[in-house]
Structures are given as structure tokens and as C-alpha cells.
Amino acid sequence: MSEYLFYIVAAITVTTAVYLIFEKNPVFGALYLIQTMVSLAVLYILLEAQFVAAVQIIVYAGAIMVLFLFVIMLLNLDIKEEARNALPFQRIPAILMGIALFTVICIVIRSKLLQGKQDQYTTAYVQSIGNTKLIGNLLFTDYLLPFEITSILLFVAAIGAIMLAKRKL
Amino acid sequence: MLDLVALILLFPLIGTAVNGLAGKRMRKETVGYIACGAIGLSFLVSILVFCGLLLLPPEGRLFEKHLFVWIESGSFRSLAALQVDPLSTVMILTVSGVGFLIHVYSIGYMHHDKGYHRYFCYLNLFTFSMLLLVLSNNFLLMFIGWEAVGLCSYLLIGFWFEKKSASNAAKKAFVVNRVGDFGFALGVMLIFLIFHSIDFTEVFSAASHGNFETGNFAITMITLLLFMGATGKSAQIPLYTWLPDAMEGPTPVSALIHAATMVTAGVYMIARCNVLYMLSPFTMTVVASIGAATALFAASIGLVQNDIKRVLAYSTISQLGYMFLACGVGAFTAGVFHLMTHAFFKALLFLGAGSVIHALSGEQDIRKMGALKSHIPTTYKTFLVGTIAIAGIPPFAGFFSKDEILLEAFVRGNFIYWSIGAIAALFTAFYMFRLLFMTFYGESRVDHHTMEHLHESPGNMTLPLIALAGLSFVGGFLGIPGASAINHFLSPVFGGHTHAEIAGTELAGHSGHHGAWLPYLMMVVSTAIAIAGIFLAYQMYIKKPDLPKKLTDRFRFIHKLLLNKYYVDEIYDALFVNPTKKISVKILWKGVDVRIIDGSVNGIARLVGGLSNVLRLLQTGYIRNYAFYIVVGCIFIVVLAVFGK
Amino acid sequence: MITITHYLVLSAILFTVGVIGVLIRRNAIIIFMCIELMLNAVNLSFVACAHYLNSMQGQLFVFFTMTVAAAEAAVGLAIIVAVFRNKETVNIDDINIMKW
Amino acid sequence: MTPVSIMTFNILSILPILILSGFGMIVLFVDIFSSRRWGEKNLLAYVSLLGVVLAAIFGRSPTGTTLFSFNETFTIDNYSLFFNFIFLLSTGLTILISHSYIRREEINHGEYYALILFSTIGMMLMASGADLLSIYIGLEVMSVSIYILTGFKRSKLISNEASLKYFLLGAFATGFLLYGISLIYGSTGAINLKQIASFIAGRGGIPDPVLLMGMGLIIIGLGFKVASVPFHTWVPDVYEGAPTAITAFMSVGPKAAGFAAFLRIFMTAFGSTHGEWQKIIYVLAILTMTIGNVIAIAQTNIKRMLAYSSIAHAGYLLIALVAANNMGISGTLFYLLAYTFMNIGAFAIVIVLSRKGDECLQINDYAGLGFKHPFLAIAMTLFMFSMAGVPPMAGFVGKFYIFSAAIKSGYIGLAVIGVINSVISVYYYLRITVIMYMKEPTRDFHPLTISPLIVVAIIISMIGTLHLGIFPSKVMEIAQQATLILK
Amino acid sequence: MDSRKGELIRITTLLVSIVVFVLSLPLYFNFNAHAYEMQFVEKLPWIPSFGIHYHVGIDGISLFLILLTTFLMPVSILASWHITKHIKEYMIAMLVLETGMVGVFASLDLFLFYVYWELMLIPMYLLIGIWGGPRRIYAAVKFFIYTMTGSVFMLLAIIALYFLNHRATGEYTFNLLEFYRLELSFAVQFWLFLAFAFAFAIKVPMFPFHTWLPDAHVEAPTAGSVILAGVLLKMGTYGFVRFCLPLFPEASHVFIPVISWMAIVGIIYGALVSMVQDDLKKLVAYSSVSHLGFVMLGIFAFNIQGIEGGITQMINHGLSTGALFLVVGMLYERRHTRMIADFGGLTKRMPVFATLFLIITLSSIGLPGLNGFVGEFLILLGAFRSRILYASIATSGIILAAVYMLWMFQRVMFHEIIHEENKTLKDVSKREFAILIPLIMIIFWIGIYPNPFLRKMDASVNHLLKQTGEKAQTVSNLQTQNTAVIPKIDIVSETKAEW
């Protein structure tokens, strides 16, 4: 069951991703990306990462992508935006490079993976406590410092966004 | 008395210093007195030293005076030390004596010159250098004198530096001498390498004690190299070309340096090294051959020259050739003897020529002279003495010395040497009398303007002439066959090789198959040759004045060849001077240096600069482009990381 | 059976697509979206690894990545807006004053 | 029962970070409450300076020991302390040189100083982070702040463009970095550097391809930050477009932070696979030096020239990384410190000479400076010779250190290429002095208004450059102690 | 700047340099000629963590070079009286230069040596670039980069020595005297010798690395040329003596033919190119190539005469060529041209000058009785003792020297005065006289009584030869085998230390 689900969702993900990079209209592009993200959220659930899946939809697909859409509309961008192409000759090499990169990655991940120490968080264990609770625990214990620093990051981003985008200071 | 030897050097040096530093602010007379006084004192000391030497037993006539250690490096050691022995005594007497006379003469001759004090400064310096050359006790110190006389020669030839020809001649003299010095320097080094010393005494005693067999290669090389130096200094083939040009200097300079003393340095040096030379028959042959060839060659050029000083210059070269011929056949005493008599009469001739030139306000072309006999009688008379002396008419000095050389050439050498010498002697007599006749006899070809100023030279010029004439007359008796004083005196230097054994009475015994009559026959023959030359000149220039022109027309080619000195200067220019200049400019400087070396240095710089301008184009300013580089770099790195074993 | 490899291949595809998008698109916002796509691909790989390793660190990392992405998005879009204010375009091929 | 791991909670260990963030806030508050007029905003600079100084003072902790805190996500050791000093120094100097500049450019906002302070926090985290997550977060804090600072001259298109380029490319490169981290995580199951190291050690030091690829991708991400070819392309453009004071900051702080992370990750986590990554760095080092130096020759804009020079210096530092011996690491530390002095000094001069609306950035604009403003010219000459590696300046000792390290590890070829490059670099550094001293002025220098703060910065830089050049011993010893931790 | 202030600066600098010279004199008088060890040694820790010391001292080899430096300095400063532009900076540069030069000759710590070696580039570069002629920038940059190119390789070699020494003794030090004791394998010596020799050969400059020299000389101000020719070039030859020979004896022996031929080509080539120059300074510059060729030939003769001659010739060249540049500078000050064709007949207007010029010219030619001869003869003698062929070819250089110098002298000083401007030239002033006279006095002194100089260097040179000879013997078989084959770089494995 989950196998079919995986393949379907994966297909959707890839398709929307490919649509994203070939779509002329940025609004549609954003929508495709949202779709990709939502599909990924499904995969996260398949991987038993419910909290991440939720955040993916709420924060990523919801907040961030809406911000994108918001800006696209604010700037009133249309299809003509990409009229000028200074590097037409880069297209084919770029795609070839992408394929090459993909090939290399595939060759690499064919080899032995997951050689590392298996951790204690087996499915059963996680379910016994709850995914979200575990993550919360870890965030306020082991990863407290990065977590706090993230606040600075967000603060910086807020200041920056205001600084750069505010019409009048 | 011998201890005074350093004073011989000191006086001229003081003269140089005083005249050089303060001469400009002194009266001309003072300058002259200081200069002459310095040399005069030097001469007096030389006589004292000579007497001192005479007091010693003949075998012990060697005195060395150490002054200080000059250069010492490792086993190499060159002292500043003086050596007095018969040979150097002969030399110092000649140099300071003749030098003194010429100094006196110069007072009058140079009286009107602006560089008066400079002149005497140089002249004194020259005398010092020459005395140093002959007094030094090792090769390197000798080399100092050797080069220093070259320097003085340079300075004095170029004395009238405003004349381009003079400065050119000066430079030529120095450079050609340097070519010779090249050989000399190498010779000295080779001596050090072979003998581990450069002291005369040590080298010669090592050489004469049978450590080296005759014909030893190293010794041959040493002697050849030293002889190379001698050819430069003494103007032998192939390095003689500077001497005729050197006549650009003031005439007394020509007399002193380019006739009487400096040019004989080569002869002196070979005589000094006779021990070495005797060990190398090959070198001796070379020396004799070159000497003979030069004697003939220069004499032949002298036949047709029209410049009074040039004739004398070629004559000098020719006479030097004789001396080398003498040395080359092993007759060192004969060489030195001729050196001395030659100093007397050639100085006399030059000074006489100077007097003529002085009288004619600078005219040197004998075609514009003539009939001066009555106008400048003293000059004429003394000049006549000198001419006879060089021509080899007994009993004048030249006769004895030249005759002895010819005899030696015949006895020790071979018939060819003798015949060349004889022909050269014929030439000598001819051109000298040609000179005499054209200058003092016949019709006057002097232009009016010059004629008005025609006058006999002042006393301080004529007195040296008379003195030298006297010496030219009596000088020969020092080496009169059979009772040769100079042979006796020099024999300690030339040891077993002296010609005392064969000269004079002992001759018969030594070279038995020729018989005792040989010397006398030789005398007769050479006198006959001289007279033949004189007769020929008389015929051509007094009796039939139009004969020379006919002959010239008849043998146009030979005449032109002789007149242009066999084009040797031109050949040298074409062979050495011009190609060197051309190669230096075109290939080395503009080609190798600018184009290749500098070009490649700047080329690398330009290459990097060009590369910079190409590579910067990668920086297109397009973000996508930059991202592309990142991806390329990524693939490269990943491939290198994963597969790059 | 869906193995880790499946997820990782999918992740690789998404990542590659994102890279290609960055290379061929000219609209700054779309490029930015492609970069977001790359980040998402990475997130997938993290979560997949975490799952198969029985580890939580991957999920945590994804959480941080998202936060960072949010911050970046805010700043990035602000920058794009600022550019647009001055230049009236978001075509990065037109934004090319500085080169060489 | 919920397992709650017991935290090694040591607030003192992050005291400098706390001080800096606190002062970041204070600056913002001061800005809000201070007058709108530009003239009274001097306080901002002084407050932020105070923050830096305090952070420097309280950032000291007993040396010689390694202190892990926050469950091994944060390390305090001599190594990170040394880097903290470099960061604080570059921050302090940047603030000093910014003061007059941002007033002239009318971007005198509290946010400017706050962002600088925040980005310093990011750098510190990069140097101190004990796992990949901390390092990543630190990197992002630093980068995002600098993206903003680069575009701080909002009204200038050149600044916008720089900011956009930096941002897009930075985010792109970060994508690779993250992917690398995920692969390492996938392979080792750990993001903590020590655990990664013990994993590799457990497998006999033989890494598998996934790990290697992850390593390669991390090199890309950090190579981008330290401006290594071929990830350097943003550098000239961004350096040119950014506000000059930020360019100065960018060329020292983030570069140092990049190397701090580079060294810590590769020496601690991948130390036993040295052979695998040194060949990559080897190639990168050669490319970076050569391309940086060669292209710098053709530059006419001084900021671009310094940008390429900064790339070249990254190349020299990579040599030390290749050598990977304690000499190389301490050499890197020393070099970065020296580079901070000389580079900020050079930019300070650039700032002094520029005026509003007339940036005076062409190298030819410096003609005749030598005798018009001897002090500035001497300072500039000093910095240029130092960067060229001429004794007795700091740059020479740094290069000496690095080449020594290379030779010690037997990389003669690399050292030879390095010195050849350093000769090439002489050309363009020398050109500045040529133009200053040997060319007649092509333009008149208006009377410069030189603020005392920037003079202080120049003097500090000069003293630093000379002191490190002539008496490097003390700093060398500290640097050597700092490296012992990594082994 | 007002002229009084300028005058004050000049006089102060002059006094300082004279005081330095006077202070350096005790070095000579208190120097123990019988000891080969370094004397007047100062050793203070400088960078202890690297084993770097401020370690200076002199022996018979460096003694005279230091004295030459301190002696030429007041002379040069006196010759810079005409500088009016930026006097203060000029004088500072001169004094810094002096520091660097003395430092180079006195350093016994290789790191310190390198620092001084490079340090002295900066003031020289500024001197050429700021106070030089029309193409000064090109010349200055070329000078700087060219020299730097050589020296960076030396830096690498120094570092390599440092580690090799550590490997051998376990001690980290840059002490030259310690390095002397190192026994290096031939291959290592080979490469390190090359690195050192490259730096020094550029500095000397040996053919074909000489092209910076004419440019730098031509464009430099008079004092710059004097220092450049007088002292800077000596650093190269000094480097060979101090470092290459004793540190890498076997390699040095192997390189005898290469270096000797380069020297010989330099002698002849320099002379020929010099001969056809039309610019006085260029002529003198190329003559330096020739003269320094002699020095190199002497050093690589590997015997006492050669090396002592080489050192003497270093001093001589400093004096004679320095003096020649001063003379050319005096002409330039008067006429603002250095083209030979613009002169001619100057003797008439400037007799005193002519005399001084002539003496200097003759000294440069190597006339016996003047200084040049002593050095040249000893060099040639030394070279002759080791390889007759080399010495024979090189000796022909003395002919060429006469040609180019005298031809130049003739064209400048002799003939009629053709150019109007030359008719009003003034003879040497008191200041110029004061500049030249000390030089000329020493020229005579060394020429006539060189032994005090030679004696002081005896012990050191003997020791040097012992070092080179003894070390060379131990691996003497190696050289014959390795002459043809360039050894592979196994220095990597030799230096590679454990991590």
C-alpha cells in the first residue's frame, strides 16, 4: 500500500518540480512549488515524521510560499519578465550538468548507506512518546543553543526585511 | 750605494706628484726644472747604483731591495721589491740618461704648450713606470710597470686630445697593448702554476737547475705567452700597428717612449727571461722569425713613407725586429746592446725630427721640406750622425750592434735570418738617407709662410741633440768585438749563454767551421750593404730626383701597397674591429639583450597580463553563469572525491 | 518495499531539478523558488535517513532548515523588492552592472 | 518516562554571544530613542564598540582546556577563542571605519551596527560549533546579516545588485552544503563532529563514497564562503557593490569564520581521511591563488582588485589546509589575524579617500597621493607590502608560516606555485604604491574630512601589521597552542 | 619645503651616515685577522617559537662589505645634494636602505637574512621609482619583481633547510652556523643550491638574468645607482660565498662549469654590449655585468686566490663603478643628458674632473697599481689554477674592458667641443671633489698596498675552503656520477615530517 502511495506521490512531486522550472508564469510556478511541498509532506508522514510534515505544510507551503506569491503579486510580475536571455547557450550545458550531477549522486547512493549506529528512536519508541514531544524535548535540551540562535536569525531576517523593503525609513 | 735604488723610483714619482698636483699654479720654468731635476737625480742615483754594482764581484752582482709585501693570497705572494743586476743597470742608465736628455729637450719643445705641466707630469710618471718595469724583481711588479708605461704612452699619445686622430691613436695604442698584456698576464699565471712563485730569482733558478727539459710544453707556453706581451709592447707583428699611429704624440714623447725606452720593454723582458726562453727552442724560433719578419716588413713600409716621424716609427719597428731576432737566436746581449745603441740614435733622430718640425712650425711631410741643411745646422749635423749610426756605418754605434746581430743570426741562426736582416739593413740605410736627403738636401719645397719663421731650435733643445749624437758615436765602442765591455758586464745575467764566448776572439774556436775570418767578413758585408743603401738613396733623391716618380709609376701596385702599409690596419678593421662592433650592436645588444632576454622577461609579464585580461572575462557578471561555475566545480569535486583514487 | 534508496533517488531528482532551474531561469523569484526546491530535496533526504537510522537528529535538522528557509525567504524577497524598486525588473540577466 | 538528558548548561561559555546580542538590541533601542538627525547618532558606534570590547573582555576563559557545553554543540577552546578574537577585532575595526562612512552615505541606522554584531555571533558559532547543525546555523546567521548589510545602500542599484548576487549564490551554495550534511548524516548517522570522527575511525579510516561525496559538498559550501575558485565568482562583484566598510568586514570576518569551520570540520571530523580531501583542496588552492592573482592584475577598481587579492589570499590559506599539520593550522590562524589588520587597513584608506558621490575607487585616482597625504600613503604602502608578503610586515610572516607548513608536509610543488603567485601578486600591490608615489596627480584631492575613529582604525591596523611582522612570537605561540585542540 | 629645512635634513643625514661609518671603523681595527670564527657576534632571541634569533656577526668576508656599505653611504648622500623633491623621504629611504644592506651582510640567522634581503628592496624601489629618470616606474617595478622572483625560491630553500636541520639534529633553528654542520645528500643539495643560486644570480646579476640591471641603473638617481652598483650587487656574490658554497659544497662543485660559463659569457657579453651603448649609465651598467662575472669566476675557482680576489673585486667594483656613476651623475647634473654623443672635449673645460674621471676609468679597466687590478688578477690567477681554459677566455675580458671604457672616455672627454652647451661647463665643485677624493684615495690604496685587506680575510676564506673542501670530499664520488643526471626530487621524502 505505502509503496504505491510512495510512487504516486513521488511522481507528483517530480512532475510539479519539473513544471516549476519550465513554467513561464511565476504565480503558477509558486503554485507548483506549493504542490511539491505538500507532496513532500505526505512523504514525511510515510516516513513517520508527523511534526515535520505539519510544519512543512504550515510554515513552508503555507507561510513561506504565500510570502512568495505575495511578493510576485506585489511586484506584478508577468511572463515578459524573462524576455531577455543573456546566456541562451547555457541552457543545454546546464541541463547536461544537472543530469551529470544526478548520475553521480545515483552512483554514490547505490553504495552502502546507513552504516552508522542505529539510534534509539525506533518507530515503536517514537510512537510511545509522540513525535512532537520528542522533538520538543530535544530542542530544549540537546539543541538549545542552535534553537536560541535561530531566534537571532529570525530577528535579523525581520530587521533585514524591513530595512531593505520598507519604502521610507 | 745599492740601497739607494729606491730613490731612482722615488724622484720621478715626486716629480709626477708635484707637477700633477701643483703644476698648474707654478711657473713653467719651475715645472721644467722639477721634472728634469727629478730625472737628473734619478740618473745620478742610477750611476751610483751602477758603481755600487761594479764594486761587487761579477757573480754576486745581484741585489734585491724589499719594500713591502704587495699582494699575498695563499701561496701566491708578490713583493714590492727591486732588483739590481747588470741587465737592469744597463736599462736604468739608458732610461734615466736618455730620459733626462729628452726632458731637457722638452723644456724647449713644449714651451708654448698649454698643457706644459701635464706633459711633464706624464713624462715623469712614464720614467717612473719604466724604471719600475726594469727594476722589479718579480713578474707581477714588472707587469705594473709594463701596464703603467702603456698608460703613460696612452696619455702622451693623446696629449693633444682635441685632435681626433691623437685620441684615436692613444686608444689604439692602449688597446693593442692590452691584447699583448692578455698574453703576458696569462703567462704570469702559468708561471705561478708551474713554479709556484713569480720571483725572478726563484723562477729562473728553478728553471736553470734542470728541472725542466728543453722543449718542455709548459715552458714553451709560458714563453710564447710572454712573447705575446712583448709583441704588443715592442710593436712586433702582428701587434705593431699602434706604433706608427703613436706619432700623434709630441715628438719628444715619440723619442722617449716610442723609440728609446718603452718599446724596448719587450726585448728587456725576453732578455730577462732568457733562462726560460733558452729552454724552449720552439719559442726561440718564433721570436726570431717574428723579429726578422718585422724587421723586413716594417723597413719595407718605411721605404715610401713621407711623414718624417712615420719613417722613423717604421724604422723603430724594424730595429726592434732586429733586437728580437737577436734574442730569438739566443744572442741576448746583442739584443740588449742594440737596444741601448738604438735608444741613443733613435732618440737622437726623433729629437732631430722634432727640431725640424719645430723649425717648420709643425710640418711633418718630407715632401714639403728640403734644403734645410743651412737653416738649421746643428739639427742637421746631429741628425746626420744619427742617420749614419742607424744605417750602420762604422764606427758609429749602430754599426757594432747591428753587425753583431747579423753575425749572431748567421752563426746561431741560419742563412735566412741573416739574409732577411741584411735586406732590412739595406732598406734601413736607404730610407734613412732618403729621409735625410729629402729633408736637408735638394731644393727647398717649404712654403713661404713657414720659411719666414724658420729658425734653429733653442739651446735646451740642441744640447740634448749634441749629447745624444755623442752617445750615438761612442756608444758602439761598449760592444766592440773582441773587447766587449757590455758582454762582460751582462754575462752574469745571461750566464752560460752569453755571446761573450762566441764573440770576438773566442769566436773562431766556438764556431770552427766558419773560420776566424767570419766576423770580419760580416763587418765588411754589412758595411757594404749600408753603403749600397746610401748610394741608392743618393742616386734617387739627389742625383736623379725624377727617378722615384718613374719607379712609382712603374711599380704602382707595390708602391701603393707599401704606402698604405700593406693595408694591415684596414684588414684588422675588417676582421676584428668592425665585426665585433656589428655583432655587439646588432646581435648581442639589440638581438640577444633587448629581443631575447629582455623580451622574454617582458614577454612573461605581458603573458600574465594578457592571461589576466582573458581570465577576467570569465567574470561575466551574470548570476546564472556564476551558478554554473559552482555546479561545474561541484561535479569536479565530487568526482575527484569519490572516484579520484 | 520502499528502501532508503528510493527516497534518496527522489531527493536527488528534486535537487537536480532545482539546480537546473537555477541555471536556466532568469526570474529572480523563480530562481529563489528553485533554491527552495533544492532545500526541500535535502529535507527529504534528512527525514528519510532519520527514519531508516531510527534517529531524530534528521528531523530536527529539517526543522532548523525550515526556519532558516523562512528567514532567508524574508530577506531574499526583501532584496528582490529592493532591486525591483531601483531597476523595475527581476530578470537577473538585466542585473549586470558589475562584471570583469 | 520521558528521558530528559542532563544538560551541561554553562551560560558563561556563551557570554560573548550574549553580550553581543544584548548590545545588538541596545543599539536598536538607542537608535529608536535617539534623535532623527544624523549628527546625534554618534552614540551608536560607541555603544556597539563597547559591546565588542566587553565581549572581548568577557570572552576570555582559562586556556589549555576544552570546554563543551550545551550537550556538545558548543566548544570553548583555545582555537575558538583565537578566532573569536579575530572576529571581534574585525568587527571592532569595521565599526571604527564605518562610523564616518555610513554617515556620509546616509545609511546611519542602528540596524547597521546591530547586524554587524549579529553576524559576529554567527561567526563565533561557526568557530565554536561542535556539530554540523550549530555550524550551519552560525553560517546562516552570519550570511543573512551580511546579505542585508551588502544591500544596505538601498537606493543604490549597485548595492542592490551585489546583495542579490550574494544572496542567490549564497543560498545556492548553502543548498550544496546542506545536501552534503544530509549525506554525511545518512552515512554516519551523526551530525556531531566527534561522533563522525569516531565513526570513521571505527571503520579503519576508510570512508565510503557517500561520506566522501558529503565531504565534497561541504567543501563547496565552505569554499563559497572563503572565496575559493571556482566558487569565488561572487566575490569581486559583491565586494565592489557593497558599502566599502562592509566589504572590509566581509573580506576578513566571514572568511575567517569560513576557515574556522573548514578547519574544525576537516581536522576534527575528517582528520583521519586527510588523504581523501587534501587532493581536492590541493587543486582548489592552486586554482584559487593563480586565478585570484592573475585576474587582479587587470583590475582598475581598487575594491575589485582587493577582492581578487582576497581570493588569492584564500588560496594561500588553502595551502595551509592541504599541509594539514599543526604548523599549517597555526599558520592559518596567524595569517587570518594578520590579514584582518592589513585588509581592513587598506579598506580604511579607501574609505578615507572616498567622498559622497565621488567614491574615488579607480586606482588611478590615487595618483600623487604619496606626497599629498603622506600618512595615508605610508599606511597604504605598508598594507600593500604586507599583503605582497614583503618583510618585515605581518603578511610576510604569515606566508612564511604557510609555506613552511607546506614544505614540512612535503608539498614542495604547492609551495613553489605559492611563491610564484606571491611574485605575481607583487605586481598589482606594487602598482598602488607606484601610482601613489610615482605618478603626478591627475585630480585634486579635496580637503578630506577624516574622522578620528577611522584614524584610530588605521593606526591599529598599522601597529598590528608591523607588530605581527616584527614581533610575531607571542601571537605565534598562542596560535600554536590553539591548534593543539584540534589534533 | 623651504631650502633651509632641506639643507638641515641633508646635513643631518650626512652626519648620521658619517657617524655610522666612523662607528663601523672599529670593526676593522678590532677585527682579529687570525680567527675564522664570527666576531662581534650578537645573539638575541627574536621569534623563539620558530627558533629565530637576532643573530649577527662578521668574519673576514663580510667585514669589508659592511665597511664598503658604510663608506659609500656618506658619499652617496653627499652626491644627492641636488635632490630637491621630497628630501626628507629620500633621506629616510637612504638610511633604511643602509640598515637593510648592513643587515644582509651581518646576519647569521637565515630568517633575519631574508628579512633584511627583502627589506632593502623597498627603499631601493622607492628611490628608483620616485627620484628616477623618465622610465623610472618600469625600472623600479622590474627591479622589485625580478629580485623578488629570485628570492622567494631562496625563501623556500631556507625553510627546507630549517626542516632538514630539524630532522638531523632535532632542533628548530635558522642559525647559519648550525646549518653549516648539516650533511645533506647530494640531491637535496642540488635543488637547494639551485634555489639559492637563482636568487643570488639575479642579484649579481649573472648573464642571462641581468636585464633588470641596465634599466634600474639608468633610471635610478645617482646615489641610487651608486648604492645599487656598489652594494646591492655584492649581495648576490656575497650570498654565493656565504651560503651556496659552505652549505652545498658538493652541489657547488658540480655547478662549477655552469656558473663559470655563465660568468665567462657575462664577462665577454657584458663588455661587448657595454661597448656599443650610447648612454653613459647603460654603459657602466653593462660593464657591471662584466665585472661581476669576474667575481663569480673567482668565487667558483674554489681556491684562496679566486675567492679572496672575488671579495677584493667586490670592493673594487663598489668603489670604481660607484665612482663612475658619481661621475656620470655629475655630468648629468650639468648637462641633463647622459648620451655620450652629447659630450666630447670636456677635458678642456674641466681638467680636474678629467683627471679624476680618468683615474676612475683606469681603475675600472683594472690597471695595475689601482685597485681593480689586484682583484682581477687574483681572480684570474685563482681561476687559472682551477681551470686554465676558463681563465684564458675570461682574461680576454680585460682587453674588452679597455676598449669600452677608453672609447667612452675618449668620446666624452677628448676631441674638440662640438656642442655649444659644453663650452660653459664648470669644473668640479668642492662638494664633488669631496665626494670623489675619498674614493680615489682608496682606489690607490687598494691598488698599491692591498695586503692589509687581504690579510684580514685570509682566515675566513681558508676556513670557507676547508668547509667546502672537506664536505665535498666525503661525497666526492657522487659528483662525478651526478654531473650529467639531474637528481629526482626526493627532497619531499627527506623533508616530510611527521604530522
UniProtKB/TrEMBL annotation, chain A:
Membrane-crossing segments per the record: 6-22, 29-47, 53-77, 89-110, 143-165
Subcellular location: Cell membrane
EC number: 7.1.1.-
Keywords, comma-separated and alphabetical: Cell membrane, Membrane, NAD, Quinone, Transmembrane, Transmembrane helix
Pfam families: Oxidored_q3 (PF00499)
Molecular function per GO: NADH dehydrogenase (ubiquinone) activity; quinone binding
Recorded GO CC terms: plasma membrane
Keyword Transmembrane helix on entry: yes
Family matches, as InterPro entries: NADH_UbQ/plastoQ_OxRdtase_su6, Nuo/plastoQ_OxRdtase_6_NuoJ
Highest taxon listed in the record's lineage: Bacteria
Catalysis performed (reactions): a quinone + NADH + 5 H(+)(in) = a quinol + NAD(+) + 4 H(+)(out)
Membrane topology annotation: Multi-pass membrane protein
Function: NDH-1 shuttles electrons from NADH, via FMN and iron-sulfur (Fe-S) centers, to quinones in the respiratory chain. Couples the redox reaction to proton translocation (for every two electrons transferred, four hydrogen ions are translocated across the cytoplasmic membrane), and thus conserves the redox energy in a proton gradient.
Similarity-based family: Belongs to the complex I subunit 6 family.
PANTHER family to which the protein is assigned, alphabetical: NADH-UBIQUINONE OXIDOREDUCTASE CHAIN 6
Protein's name in the database: NADH-quinone oxidoreductase subunit J
Lineage: Bacteria, Pseudomonadati, Planctomycetota, Candidatus Brocadiia, Candidatus Brocadiales
From TrEMBL, chain B:
Lipid bilayer topology: Multi-pass membrane protein
Domain NADH-Ubiquinone oxidoreductase (complex I) chain 5 N-terminal: 70-120
Major location (coarse): membrane
InterPro entries per record: NADHpl_OxRdtase_5_subgr (IPR018393), ND/Mrp_TM (IPR001750), NU5C-like (IPR003945), Proton_antipo_N (IPR001516)
Transmembrane segments: 30-55, 90-107, 119-135, 141-161, 173-195, 215-232, 253-271, 277-299, 311-337, 343-361, 382-400, 415-441, 462-486, 517-541, 626-644
Keywords: Membrane, Transmembrane, Transmembrane helix
Iron recorded as keyword: no
A single GO molecular function term of this UniProt record: NADH dehydrogenase activity
Superkingdom assignment: Bacteria
Cellular component per GO, a single term: membrane
Residue span(s) of domain NADH:quinone oxidoreductase/Mrp antiporter transmembrane: 136-428
Protein location: Endomembrane system; Membrane
Listed NCBIfam families: NDH_I_L, PRK06590.1
Protein name (record): NADH-quinone oxidoreductase subunit L
Organism annotation: Candidatus Brocadia carolinensis
Automatic annotation (TrEMBL), chain C:
GO cellular component terms, A-Z: NADH dehydrogenase complex; plasma membrane
Reactions catalysed: a quinone + NADH + 5 H(+)(in) = a quinol + NAD(+) + 4 H(+)(out)
One Gene Ontology biological process: ATP synthesis coupled electron transport
Localization (cell): Cell membrane; Membrane
Gene3D superfamilies associated with the record: 1.10.287.3510
Chief localization: membrane
Record keyword Cell membrane present: yes
Transmembrane segments: 6-24, 31-54, 60-84
Topological category with respect to the lipid bilayer: Multi-pass membrane protein
EC number: 7.1.1.-
Keyword field contains Coiled coil: no
Record keywords, A-Z: Cell membrane, Membrane, NAD, Quinone, Translocase, Transmembrane, Transmembrane helix, Transport, Ubiquinone
Top-tier EC class: translocase
Molecular-function annotations in GO: NADH dehydrogenase (quinone) (non-electrogenic) activity; quinone binding
Assembly and interaction partners: NDH-1 is composed of 14 different subunits. Subunits NuoA, H, J, K, L, M, N constitute the membrane sector of the complex.
Family in the record: Belongs to the complex I subunit 4L family.
Summary of the function given for this chain in its UniProt record: NDH-1 shuttles electrons from NADH, via FMN and iron-sulfur (Fe-S) centers, to quinones in the respiratory chain. The immediate electron acceptor for the enzyme in this species is believed to be ubiquinone. Couples the redox reaction to proton translocation (for every two electrons transferred, four hydrogen ions are translocated across the cytoplasmic membrane), and thus conserves the redox energy in a proton gradient.
Xref: NCBIfam families: PRK05715.1-2, PRK05715.1-3, PRK05715.1-5
Protein name in UniProt: NADH-quinone oxidoreductase subunit K
Organism: Candidatus Brocadia carolinensis
Automatic annotation (TrEMBL), chain D:
GO cellular component: endomembrane system; plasma membrane
Molecular-function annotations in GO: NADH dehydrogenase (quinone) (non-electrogenic) activity; NADH dehydrogenase (ubiquinone) activity; quinone binding
Domain of life, per lineage: Bacteria
One Pfam family in the UniProt entry: Proton_antipo_M
InterPro entries tied to this protein: NADH-Q_OxRdtase_suN/2, ND/Mrp_TM
Enzyme's top EC category: translocase
EC identifiers of the protein: 7.1.1.-
GO biological process assignments: ATP synthesis coupled electron transport
Membrane topology of the entry: Multi-pass membrane protein
Record flagged with keyword Isomerase: no
Residue intervals passing through the bilayer: 6-30, 42-59, 79-98, 110-127, 164-186, 206-224, 245-267, 279-298, 305-327, 333-354, 375-398, 410-430, 450-470
Catalytic reaction(s) noted: a quinone + NADH + 5 H(+)(in) = a quinol + NAD(+) + 4 H(+)(out)
Claim: Endoplasmic reticulum is one of the keywords in the record: no
Cellular localisation: Cell membrane; Endomembrane system; Membrane
PANTHER family tied to this protein: NADH DEHYDROGENASE
UniProt function note: NDH-1 shuttles electrons from NADH, via FMN and iron-sulfur (Fe-S) centers, to quinones in the respiratory chain. The immediate electron acceptor for the enzyme in this species is believed to be ubiquinone. Couples the redox reaction to proton translocation (for every two electrons transferred, four hydrogen ions are translocated across the cytoplasmic membrane), and thus conserves the redox energy in a proton gradient.
HAMAP family per the UniProt record, alphabetical: NDH1_NuoN_1
Protein name (database record): NADH-quinone oxidoreductase subunit N
The organism of origin for this protein: Candidatus Brocadia carolinensis
Gene name, Swiss-Prot/TrEMBL: nuoN
